């Protein structure tokens, strides 16, 4: 390394240390850090190889031979396959002979992975089972030593995560006390969730703008998403005031989720509207949750399920539990409610100013077919390219990314800042404390979770190899 680049590196690390201190103590972030190319390069070395990266759900590949191809960070392609033994494994999507990508498709069913270059083949367990002209190879060449490279994968409630770092903490420890709240969505069904094939979309934004928003920006909803009410998709709770009284669960590990409900005085004033404000769950989903969750988890869900739950599993898996009015069915004025849905969204970096946005619809496996169909309709209306929520968000993300790349932000970094002033004191948490890494804040619009999101980001970039 030249002394010049060592100096640049040192300056960068000093900037990161100052930024970490500033986001925690003052809630201020230099704007250039959002889309900085240097930080993007540092993420490739220090963030993506060490975090637990979401790669899909067990239900997407139910049978032996089913496989799917997913990515970890911007570069690493991974095959997740169900073996003959029913076990799920993750392998780098590359041939061990000379590194050619093995599968060019997203989903498939096979008995063998055959490399299109020289024809080496691998079974579902990753063993090398075929090498053309093997009789001409040196005597000490052993196909058994040339199996696919397996990467560490762990599951939580059917959600699959890959970590490229063999020494990283377990997924369970990574989730910490946050898992108690996550269970309310992913473990309330006796037989789990089913995921539908994802929809993908490329957006001109840095992934962190989207991730901080989906982590805990309840504050933007009453402005950015007001059109949802105006179009009649949401009940007429003008300005989404109910969100202000939500419980925001924030983890110092960067995860977050809120439980938003209707503002208490609003409920008292508009009792006649309330039946319409609680989306209608399939009764079997409620029954299943009652027996599968603890009493406290079940009550938490029932108390708050009238509105949205949204948050993030660090760094880039968004969970959205919302609802939408269905044309020809929902009539808020007559007390006929909208239909709930669950969406998981992955924000994957492609470049410092480009992100792939992948959305999955999820529903309880034991829900009835009619509910599944309506829930899917609610999901497709609200999310993705044609939805009435997400395109509004994308404009915000893109314009912040552009501001963060401005000359002024980059030349005069300390003075062009994003600020996160909204805070509140924590209340007694609902969960049993094991890891002591979660705070519960009675303010849905707090920006405190975003401070933790960024602090965790700086921790990854400042530490490790
Ligand atoms: S690179 Fe795959 S067989 Fe040669
Ligand atoms: Fe939004």
Automatic annotation (TrEMBL):
Domain Rieske: 52-162
PROSITE patterns in UniProt: RIESKE (PS51296), RING_HYDROXYL_ALPHA (PS00570)
InterPro entries: ARHD_Rieske_2Fe_2S, Rieske_2Fe-2S, Rieske_2Fe-2S_sf, Ring_hydroxy_dOase_asu_C_dom, Rng_hydr_dOase-A
Pfam families per the UniProt record, alphabetical: Rieske, Ring_hydroxyl_A
Sections of the chain in a coiled coil: none
SUPFAM superfamilies: Bet v1-like, ISP domain
Molecular-function GO term, any one: dioxygenase activity
Keywords: 2Fe-2S, Dioxygenase, Iron, Iron-sulfur, Metal-binding, NAD, Oxidoreductase
Family statement drawn from the similarity comment of this UniProt entry: Belongs to the bacterial ring-hydroxylating dioxygenase alpha subunit family.
PANTHER family xrefs: 3-PHENYLPROPIONATE_CINNAMIC ACID DIOXYGENASE SUBUNIT ALPHA, CHOLINE MONOOXYGENASE, CHLOROPLASTIC
The protein, known as: Rieske (2Fe-2S) domain-containing protein
């Amino acid at each position: 390394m030249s002394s010049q680049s060592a100096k640049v590196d040192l300056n960068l690390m000093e900037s990161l240390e100052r930024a970490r201190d500033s986001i925690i103590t003052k809630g201020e972030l230099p704007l250039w850090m959002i889309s900085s190319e240097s930080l993007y390069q540092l993420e490739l070395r220090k963030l993506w190889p060490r975090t637990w990266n979401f790669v899909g759900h067990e239900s997407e590949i139910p049978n032996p031979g089913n496989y799917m191809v997913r990515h970890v960070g911007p570069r690493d392609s991974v095959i997740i396959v169900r073996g003959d033994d029913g076990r799920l494994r993750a392998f780098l999507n590359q041939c061990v002979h000379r590194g050619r990508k093995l599968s060019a498709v997203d989903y498939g069913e096979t008995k063998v992975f055959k490399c299109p270059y020289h024809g080496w083949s691998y079974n579902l367990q990753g063993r090398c089972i075929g090498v053309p002209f093997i009789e001409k190879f040196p005597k000490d060449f052993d196909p058994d030593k040339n199996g696919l490279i397996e990467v560490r994968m762990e599951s939580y409630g059917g959600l699959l995560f890959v970590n490229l770092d063999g020494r990283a903490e377990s997924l369970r420890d990574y989730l910490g006390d946050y898992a108690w709240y996550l269970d309310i969505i992913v473990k309330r069904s006796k037989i789990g969730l089913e995921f539908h094939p994802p929809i993908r979309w490329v957006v001109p934004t840095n992934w962190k703008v989207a991730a901080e928003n989906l982590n805990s920006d309840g504050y933007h909803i009453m402005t950015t998403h007001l059109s949802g009410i105006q179009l009649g998709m949401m009940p007429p709770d003008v300005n989404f005031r109910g969100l202000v009284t939500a419980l925001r669960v924030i983890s110092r590990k960067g995860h977050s989720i809120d439980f938003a409900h209707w503002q208490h005085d609003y409920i008292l004033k508009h009792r006649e509207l309330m039946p319409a404000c609680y989306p209608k769950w399939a009764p079997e989903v409620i029954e299943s949750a009652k027996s599968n969750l603890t009493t406290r988890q079940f009550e938490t869900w029932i108390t708050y399920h009238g509105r949205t739950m949204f948050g993030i599993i660090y760094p880039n898996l968004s969970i959205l539990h919302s609802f939408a009015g269905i044309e020809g069915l929902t009539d808020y004025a007559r007390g006929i409610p909208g239909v709930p849905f669950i969406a998981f969204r992955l924000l994957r970096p492609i470049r410092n100013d480009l992100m792939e946005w992948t959305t999955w619809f999820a529903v309880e496996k034991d829900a009835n077919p009619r509910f599944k169909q309506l829930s899917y309709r609610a999901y497709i209306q609200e999310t993705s390219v044609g939805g009435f929520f997400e395109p509004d968000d994308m404009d915000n993300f893109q314009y912040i990314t552009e501001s963060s790349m401005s000359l002024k932000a980059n030349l005069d970094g300390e003075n062009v800042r994003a600020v996160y002033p909204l805070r509140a004191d924590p209340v007694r948490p609902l969960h049993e404390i094991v890891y002591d890494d979660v705070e519960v804040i009675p303010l849905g619009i707090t920006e405190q979770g975003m401070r933790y999101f960024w602090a965790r980001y700086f921790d990854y970039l400042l530490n490790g190899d």
